[in-house]
Amino acid sequence: MSGKVAVVTGAARGFGRAFTEALLKRGDKVCFCDVDVQQGKQTENELKQNFGDDNVQFLPCDVRKDEEFKDFFNRVIQKYNTVDIMVNNAGIMNENQWRTTIDINLTAMVHGSLLAMDHMKNRSNSGGLIVNVSSLAGVMPVSFCPAYTASKHGVVAFSRSWARQPELKRNRIRITCLCPSFAETDIIKGTDDRVVGPELARKALKITGIMVIDRVTEAFLRVLDDADNNGKVMVVTPKIMDYHTFYDPKL
Q1: Sign of the alpha-carbon dihedral angle for 217, 69, 229, 205
Q2: Could you read off the pLDDT of 233-243 as tens digits, one per residue?
Q3: For the whole prediction, is pTM greater than 0.90?
Q4: How many angstroms separate the CA atoms of 152 and 91, rounded?
Q5: Could you give the CA distance from residue 107 to residue 218 in angstroms, rounded to a whole number?
Q6: Rounded CA gap, 34 and 146, in Å?
Q7: What secondary structure does DSSP assign to 226-238, as a single string?
Q8: Can you tell me whether residue 85 is helix, strand or coil?
């Protein structure tokens, strides 16, 4: 997938920034967005110093706002003429703001995926890849963050279901998921104030451990390199980096 044009949402810091940098190192051009304009511009400046002004661009965008998200996507196409890789990474965990959590984690992911599909299927069968960032909470129940868990299950279900669409296969569009456990990102900072049962969250952190972001980036690159990854769900923890096995009656 090197030498392509990629879009990454929620990439001012954390996983999104790491994924953006990994794509740039492969020779891709990347346009990324975030609601944090100050951090986004800082990240853009740092990346431009290492990878060149024309290879990376930051555009402010609130992915919850349909027209704003659509405008962002269209501006990427205006600049680079195409989008080959769509990474729906934007996400939060806040049980006190469950509607916002679902809007960002699930609804915006659906919108981003559909924008990418509509563009990719009209590119003379040149195909494309959509990577939706879920969570370990997307494949298992998590007691201290039910709304977050529901949203991440939705990411997995949406991606696996679309992967079976004959239309996507005919147009060589692949869609896949990345499901990391806890890692060194802002999403785990101040967890006690944003979950149902802080003691349950602290216990889970002790059991699963906290990964460095580089490990999640390694899993992301494995997803990019797997030409047969349509509908697959990559789980990454401090001990595991493999595709998840589901009960699958092939309906």
Answers
A1: positive
A2: 999 999 999 99
A3: yes
A4: 9
A5: 27
A6: 25
A7: -TT-TT-EEEE-S
A8: strand
| Distance, CA of 71 to CA of 123 (rounded, Å) | 19
CA distance 235 to 206: 19
Residue 89 contacts residue 8 (beta carbons within 8 Å): yes
Task: Please provide the DSSP assignment of 157-178 as one string.
Answer: HHHHHHTT-HHHHHTTEEEEEE
CATH of domain 5-243: 3.40.50.720
pLDDT digits (tens, 9 = 90+) for 108-137: 999 999 999 999 998 777 899 999 999 999
CB-CB neighbours of 92 under 10 Å:
16
Q: How far is CA 188 from CA 2, 23, 78, 100, in A?
A: 32, 25, 36, 17
**Cβ–Cβ < 8 Å for 13, 41:** no
Rg (CA), the chain: 17
**Whole-angstrom distance, CA of residue 180 vs CA of residue 217:** 10
Rounded to whole angstroms, the Cα distance separating 119 from 128 reads 9
Distance from the Cα of residue 194 to its chain's centroid: 21
Q: What pLDDT was estimated at residue 1? A: 61
Structure tokens at 157: 């279900």
Mean pLDDT by runs of 10 across the 251 residues of the chain is 90 97 97 98 98 97 98 96 97 96 98 97 86 97 96 98 94 97 82 84 89 97 95 97 91 72
Q: Which residues are catalytic?
A: 148
